[in-house]
Design brief:
321 residues, alpha/beta
């Protein structure tokens, strides 16, 4: 009986040591398959730890990214920092979220930037082409509502914005402004921002799916076009990504109410992060999990790192960490 006690005591002592050794070995051998998880599941540890950064070099490797114009500027900043640190050649094109996702489906890019979530039918098209779509939430954003400087409207509800963009409200005096016709500027049909605004605002969070932009709405290609339209014309309303507010000096920033009775909220880092701002959203990068190059995987890892998130915040977005 005494010998048995000695035996079990040895097992109790030895097994934790074995598990510790194996745990250390497997931790040190972590593979890049962790990149197949979404950004929400990504741990703080990345494949490009600072101590191994000097060993990584993508000279001669290429990466093509296309899609959302909202993410265009920050993607260019990410690419510059990445190439300076790790080499490689990164090409970034805009075109809109729909274009980027279509490129991914058709194998015309490596990564797709999108300011809206991918649609079910797009996933089906991708699967039919042998593409396993992987989704990464890379930043948070708020869609800021802006008006020309001569419009002194401080706040609008989601319902009022819906009526304006449907063409039901056509004069500023009906929402507390001057007696002047409303000029509404929105994004074109390829824009993820325009589609998100349609669903969240015009369609009242998808509750009124028959609602659509009115015929009088100016459909513009980019955030910059919206800013220029609002700055250059009186009586105009538009919406832009939070990261473009710094380019909209001189415009009137409108607070937004979720309902007519709720508090009006201004978009900023805190209200976007805690989603108290009614038009806050996630920004995405989509990849082909079946055919992800080393440089594509490393680039995603980089933008989700502390350095990459800091770049996003410098541009004007809200980090996910």
């Amino acid at each position: 009986m005494r010998n048995r006690k000695k035996f079990w005591l040895s097992v109790v002592i030895i097994l934790p040591v074995i598990f510790f050794i194996f745990g250390a070995v497997f931790t040190g051998c972590k593979s890049t398959t962790a990149l197949e998880t979404t950004a929400k599941e990504t741990t703080a540890e990345t494949a490009m730890a600072e101590e191994t950064a000097a060993e990584i070099n993508f000279k001669g490797k290429t990466l093509i990214i296309s899609g959302s114009t909202t993410l265009l500027e920050v993607s260019q900043a990410w690419a510059e920092a990445f190439m300076e640190k790790y080499g490689g050649e990164i090409t970034i094109n805009g075109g809109g979220s729909g274009v980027g996702i279509a490129d991914l489906i058709n194998g015309a890019n490596d990564l797709a930037n999108s300011s809206r979530e991918i649609k079910g039918e797009e996933i089906e098209q991708a699967e039919a082409n042998g593409i396993d779509v992987k989704e990464y939430v890379v930043l948070f954003d708020g869609i800021a509502v802006i008006t020309s400087q001569n419009i002194n409207v401080a706040e609008l509800s989601i319902k009022q914005l819906s009526d304006i963009y449907m063409g039901k409200i056509t004069n500023w005096k009906d929402v507390g402004g001057p007696d002047a016709s409303i000029v509404a500027a929105g994004r074109d049909s390829s824009s993820g921002t325009g589609e998100y605004f349609l669903e969240r605002v015009v369609q009242l969070n998808k509750k009124e799916k028959d609602n659509d932009y009115g015929d009088v709405v100016l459909r513009l290609q980019s955030n910059a076009d919206i800013v220029n339209s609002v700055i250059g014309n009186d009586n105009t309303i538009g919406y832009i990504g939070l990261g473009y507010l710094k380019e909209a000096a001189g415009v009137n920033l409108v607070k937004v109410k979720d309902t007519d009775d709720s508090e009006a909220v201004e978009p900023d880092i805190q209200t976007v992060k805690d989603k108290s701002y009614p038009i806050a959203r996630d920004l995405f990068v989509y990849a082909n999990g079946n055919k992800m190059s080393e440089i594509a995987a490393a680039f995603i890892d980089f933008i989700l790192s502390t350095e990459g998130q800091a770049i996003g915040e410098e541009v004007g977005f809200v980090g996910i960490k």
